[in-house]
Amino acid sequence: MNVTLTAADGHTFSAYVVGPENAKKSLVVIQEIFGVNKHMRRVCDDFAKEGYRVVCPALFDRTERNVELNYEQADVQNGLAMRAKIDEGKVMLDVLASAAALPAGAKRGIVGYCWGGTLAWHGATRTKAFDAANAWYGGGIAATKGEVPNCPVEMHFGETDASIPMPAVEEIKAAQPGVAVFVYMGAGHGFGCEDRGSYKPEDAKLADKRTLAFFNKHLG
């Protein structure tokens, strides 16, 4: 279902919410640059089937509401343009409001994909709202690799991701020896999205398995 949440600065935004209301483990799921589209709802539904209460905020509501983009090149450009209009600090207010909407007493994790992967990292380093964070191919992580996480973190990268070259991933590993970083050989950016040309089912399945094991360890 869709609900309306309010950030600390008074901004109201939509969020997709699914999963048991009395869950003992919960997640904020952070979108790619394509909005809370069919793929993101599927991701949320899959976590809900594992017993998680899930909140997925529509971060693009700060610039345009009801955004659901596809994966054609034109939509990539549209998504990048919308992301560029949004203040990073204000986005984190939406993330915190989403965390606050999770069940009281439940352990809270954050997981993000693409842009959301970077924001999941920031959720770990710039807030104390989460008990665990999981980042899939976050392109902005390397630029903030020296930040200190406040919770356990796991990361996933594709070896052939043109936007996150392997030297950048190695820099992240060197800066964060306590973070589990997995690299999927031959996988590109967005390998976990079934609607992308870069989708690699076996790698996506393995990364999903690792993500669930990580959250079950720290949130279960």
CATH class, anyone?
Alpha Beta
Helices, by number, come to 6
With strands numbered from the N-terminus, the spatial order across the biggest sheet is 1-2-4-3-5-6-7-8
CATH architecture: 3-Layer(aba) Sandwich
Fraction of residues in helices? 25-40%
Instruction: Assign the structural class, choosing from mainly alpha, mainly beta, alpha/beta, alpha+beta, or little secondary structure.
Output: alpha/beta
SS elements, strand count = 8
Total domains, how many? 1
Spatial separation of the terminal alpha carbons:
24 Å
Query: Overall 3D geometry?
Result: globular
Largest sheet: 8 strands, mixed
Q: Give the C-alpha Rg.
A: 16 Å
Superfamily (CATH H level) name = Alpha/Beta hydrolase fold, catalytic domain
**Unreliable stretches covering 5 or more consecutive residues:** none
Order of helices and strands: EEEHEHHEHEEHEH
The CATH topology turns out to be Rossmann fold
Strand proportion, as a percent range, falls in 15-25%
Mean pLDDT across every amino acid position: 97
Describe this structure in words.
The protein is built from 6 helices and 8 strands; from the N terminus they run βββαβααβαββαβα. The protein is 35% helix and 21% strand. It is α/β, with parallel strands linked by helices. The protein has one domain (2-219): 3-Layer(aba) Sandwich (Rossmann fold), CATH 3.40.50.1820. It starts with a strand and ends with a helix.
